[in-house]
Amino acid sequence: MHPDEKEAVIDDLMAFQESQEYYAKVGKAWKRERIIIFTINHKEKLDPMLIQRGRMDKHIEMSYCRFEGFKMLAKNYLDVIEDELFGEVQCLLEESDMSPVDVAENLMPMSKKKRRDPSVCLIGLIEALKQAKKEAATIKVKEA
């Protein structure tokens, strides 16, 4: 395994371990015979066995995350209904395209510091939105 990939796996495992509280709240849906819903950016990258009939029966195409969706994600992940940073997030969501999965990833409590302060997660999201906006502008210039 490449050292960078190994480091990424270790980082993910550490983040998972540090977020036990969060995952305990989510629960084990598969043990309670519940429906599991997940999103993915690239359906073609899924294992064909996963998307065969009877395993994944409903496919829903989703749009990019907009402010109303962000507010729901902020409530679910950060337990925040309103924050002074919401205005900046709203402007950036209107100017850039980011999937709800990417927004949620930035809102997930990945460390003890982030878990205590939702503003840290929101600032991280703002930085990610600025980066996405910059990358989209670069691609647009290259295509022109």
UniProtKB/TrEMBL annotation:
Coiled-coil boundaries: none
TM segment ranges: none
Domain of life the protein comes from: Eukaryota
Name of the protein in its database record: AAA+ ATPase At3g28540-like C-terminal domain-containing protein
Domain AAA+ ATPase At3g28540-like C-terminal: from-to ranges: 65-138
InterPro entries: At3g28540-like_C (IPR058017), Mitochondrial_chaperone_BCS1 (IPR050747), P-loop_NTPase (IPR027417)
Organism whose genome encodes this protein: Aegilops tauschii (Tausch's goatgrass)
